[in-house]
Amino acid sequence: MLTRHATPSRDLVRLADSPGDIVGLRARINRRLCLMDAQIRTFIERPEEGAVTAEYAVVLVAATGFAALLVTILKSDAVKTLLMNIIKKALNIG
After folding, report:
1. Which InterPro entries match (predicted)?
2. The pTM of the whole model exceeds 0.85
């Protein structure tokens, strides 16, 4: 924990037991900072890349559900009868 009189170098010494540990701790911190920087830069360059994929997925799920509903409706006897009557009337008129 940081106290009012603490400095970053004192905090590093408290987190590490030896000077070699301090070097390792600094290396880990630098590595994590580099990874965070890379992630932020990637997000800034292409912020909506994943959003487009998610939108396509939602549209595909909705379209599949709508298609399943249409198939169910069109297979019902009432709709079959209605369509057959329409076709018979169209053929009889001509």
Report:
1. DUF4244 (IPR025338)
2. no
